[in-house]
Design brief:
Blueprint: E1 7-13, E2 17-23, E3 26-33, E4 43-48, E5 53-59, H1 69-86, E6 90-93, H2 118-130, E7 139-144, H3 157-164, E8 168-173, E9 185-189, E10 204-209, H4 213-216, E11 218-225, E12 228-235, E13 249-254, E14 274-280, E15 285-294, E16 300-306, E17 308-309, E18 317-321, E19 335-343, E20 348-350, E21 354-355, H5 369-375, H6 379-409, H7 412-423, H8 427-443, H9 447-462, E22 466-468, E23 478-481, E24 484-488, E25 495-499, H10 505-545, H11 547-557, H12 563-566, H13 572-575, H14 580-608, H15 610-614, H16 617-642
Helix pairs in contact: 2-3, 6-9, 6-10, 8-10, 9-16, 10-11, 10-14, 10-16, 14-16
Length: 643
């Protein structure tokens, strides 16, 4: 065992409560409301523990609801047996215990981000500084919270990171659900602005996301062994799949996993010749063995170490000795450790292979795109860029054809200037320009639909997208605008504006990028395809009745296409666009957009009320009406020509 008795501090911060634990020979808890205006007193309580190893169980995002009783039922049938077997020092729930909260706020999905204030962060910082009265070698600080660090907005990044680097080593959180959040880990380096002061020893801190109980039934066992932190995530099987018996679970507390270790290398570090593992089981354990594998030698077993139950403490802690000096390596992933357990029924359970480094070297796993999106992207700034670039594109998309039409057909001086430049281009470039102009001119030719698209875009900019119950089903109806929710205050007649911004990006960006923008493009494409059909029809007339009979039709078709673009270009390339597969592909695109639109509307109906959202024209009815009207207009004209 480790000779020095270390202590650890857990700091739980979910923007409503601050919660601190520390232990050496006892666990000390601090409970403080940090959301109020005043300076509330801090209440601290303690209870004793034995030895240097302690562990807690973390659960996150329970979302208990009367509409989903299985979530609460599984707390009894799954979590309770697990807690009886694990016997943690503490059970920590990192937020979202229920769905409709004690403090009224905007309902999901318009609550993606945390919104701490400067006052709240100042309270957190002051409480962390309280623990600086203890020697830094004997105190380790941790955070437990709901939101990811960089999903906490309305504060400068340096302001948040400064608080998190007050001797903190890792942040454990929830909030994100399902497979999206599995193994979502990142080491935040302590690279801040030069004017931000942080402790000298602060090299950075870890952020470890835990998946949800709501859908995945995940729990985490987190252990502290002489200041070294390890954790193991468990997905509890559904009660209808297996009996309520808890399955044997192994948590290696030392050495730490080199992929997410908190005790990174330091100068003059002394090696611990320990292997420690917690074994949680409802069965009697008769044998525990640790095996060391060498990845440089085709994963051969290089040592087996028997682990013995430590009888001095009332814990399922198994301990063994080895020569840690033998496993020095320049690679943090060369050696791997696995613990196997045999119970009295002969059933064997093995832990996952995990790399370790006795020197404290950190293994650098390749970052995934999910980790990049969650930990690296500053969504508050990126949201505005994505949103307004999309609207700018749509404005140009609608206005450019009309400007080109004016310049090409009504402005002789522009034609005189443009003609030699266009003719000098290579034939392939001219062909590409011809197709582009054809698409824009013909797509915007229907004035009624074009004007309706312009008005619809203006409505999205200035009018409500939909109405719904933003806070709860028993409160007043609120309206969601592009700028945020507009809600009447519960205690007055004042109107609260721009709520849920930028959290509502999970609504606005999918709707604009997956529905509105492709819908506008498909409307243009269907009209351009119709025009191509006309051109193809005119060629048939030319072959059947001679050039005189088809010249009038051909002139009507190409009246908006500048002649300098068609010079030297065969119309056969445009005629290929009118083949049957093109229209079928466009109709398939309309169907896909409709499905995306239906999925978005359904999610919002479930979140904010079926009746109100379904009766909101801008969100629910406008996109399908646009597509139906376009399909009807193009189909009717084509059928007329075929007759």
């Amino acid at each position: 065992m480790a000779s020095p008795i270390s202590s650890a501090i857990f700091f739980f911060f979910s923007f409503s409560f601050a919660f601190v634990l520390s232990w050496s020979t006892s666990i000390e808890m601090e409970n403080k409301v940090v959301g109020g205006e005043g300076a509330e007193p801090v209440a601290r309580e303690s209870f004793p523990i034995d030895g240097d190893v302690a562990w807690v169980v973390q659960v996150s995002d329970l979302h208990l609801s009367t509409y989903h009783p299985d979530r609460a039922d599984d707390l009894v049938h799954l979590l309770a047996p697990a807690l009886r077997a694990i016997r943690p020092s503490l059970l920590v729930i990192t937020g979202d215990i229920t769905d409709d909260t004690l403090s009224i706020g905007i309902r999901g999905p318009s609550n993606l981000f945390g919104h701490p204030t400067e006052k709240r962060m100042a309270v957190v910082e002051s409480e962390l500084q309280y623990w600086d009265i203890y020697p830094s070698e004997s105190v380790t600080k941790y955070y437990l919270g709901t939101f990811q660090c960089l999903l906490q907005l309305h504060l400068k990044k340096d302001s948040v990171m400064k608080v998190y680097l007050q001797g903190n080593q890792f942040h454990i959180c929830g909030h994100l659900h399902g497979n999206f959040s599995r193994q979502l880990w990142r080491l935040h380096p302590s690279k801040l602005s030069s004017d931000v002061l942080v402790p000298r020893k602060a090299k950075g801190f870890w952020e470890w996301e835990l998946g949800d109980w709501k859908e995945s039934r995940l729990i985490r066992i987190l252990s502290i062994d002489g200041g070294v932190v390890s954790f193991h995530d468990i997905e509890l099987p559904r009660k209808h799949d297996v009996q309520d018996e808890f399955q044997t679970t192994i948590v290696i507390t030392y050495p730490a996993d080199s992929r997410n270790m908190n005790n990174m290398e330091q100068n003059n570090q002394s090696f611990r010749n320990d292997i420690n593992a917690l074994v949680f089981s409802t069965q009697q354990i008769i044998n525990v063995t640790a095996k060391v594998f060498d990845s440089f030698r085709d994963y051969k077993i290089v040592e087996e170490v028997p682990l013995q139950l430590i009888s001095a403490v009332d814990k399922p802690l198994f301990h063994g000795k080895w020569n840690a000096e033998s496993y020095r390596s320049a690679s943090a992933t060369r050696y791997l450790l696995q613990v196997s357990v045999m119970d009295y029924q002969g059933k064997e359970t093995k832990s996952n292979l995990r790399p370790f480094s006795v020197e404290g070297k950190l293994a650098h796993d390749a970052s995934t795109w999910l980790a990049y999106l969650v930990f690296q992207v500053e969504w508050q700034s990126l949201y505005m860029v994505l949103l307004w670039s999309n609207f700018s594109f749509l404005v140009v998309f609608l206005c450019l054809p009309k400007v080109l039409n004016y310049l090409m057909e009504r402005n002789a001086s522009y034609q005189k200037w443009a003609t030699p430049h266009v003719i000098s281009l290579p034939i392939k470039w001219r062909q590409s320009l011809f197709v582009l102009f054809w698409f824009l001119m013909e797509g915007s030719r229907n004035r009624i639909l074009w004007f309706s698209m312009v008005m619809y875009l203006l409505c999205l900019l200035n009018l409500p997208w939909f109405w719904g119950y933003a806070t709860s089903e028993n409160e007043n109806i609120a309206a969601m605008y592009l700028s945020g929710w507009r809600v009447q205050s519960l205690d007055s007649h004042a109107i609260l504006d721009k709520l849920g911004n930028p959290d509502m990006m999970v609504i606005t960006l999918p709707f604009m990028y997956l529905v509105v923008t492709p819908m506008f493009i498909l409307i243009y494409s269907l009209f351009a395809e119709r025009s191509s059909f006309y051109l193809h029809f005119c060629r048939k007339l030319r072959h059947q009745n001679g050039p005189v009979a088809s010249n009038v039709e051909l002139e009507q078709v190409t009246q908006y296409v500048p002649s300098n673009l068609t010079r030297g270009i065969s119309t056969s390339s445009a005629c290929k666009f009118c083949q049957g597969w093109t229209r079928r592909s466009l109709l398939l695109g309309c169907l896909i957009i409709t499905l995306f639109h239906f999925k978005i509307c359904l999610a919002l109906m479930l979140a904010y009320g079926v009746g109100l959202v379904s009766l909101s024209p801008a969100l629910t009815w406008a996109p399908p009406l646009f597509l139906v009207a376009t399909i009807y207009c193009t189909s009717a004209n084509m059928n007329t020509e075929q007759r």
